[in-house]
Amino acid sequence: MDPNYNDLIASFGIIGLIVGLAVYLAVLALMLWIGYLIIKAAVRNGLREHTLWLEQRRGPLR
């Protein structure tokens, strides 16, 4: 085998590893962001429901 051929295969392996790592990190960041948005919406809805419940018990808060 030609030494240049081995270098070419090795460079594709390194490039593939870097691209794979970048895709993995991008998917991980996307999952964390979506999870954050879901939790944020749940907390907002919970606070809204709790505020409405308090207003029904005691009257307007402000």
Describe what is shown at a glance.
The chain crosses the membrane at residues 12-39. Keywords: Membrane, Transmembrane, Transmembrane helix. By secondary structure, the chain is mostly helical.
Architecture blueprint of SSEs:
Blueprint: H1 3-58
Q: In words, what does this structure look like?
A:
Keywords: Membrane, Transmembrane, Transmembrane helix. The chain is an all-alpha fold and 62 residues long.
Mean pLDDT: 89
Residue share in helix? over 70%
What is the H/E order? H
| End-to-end distance | 81 Å
User: Which structural class is indicated by helix and strand composition?
Assistant: mainly alpha
The number of helical elements comes to: 1
Low-confidence stretches: none
Please give the number of β-strands: 0
Name some characteristics of this structure.
62 residues; mainly alpha; 1 helix; 90% helix; rod-shaped
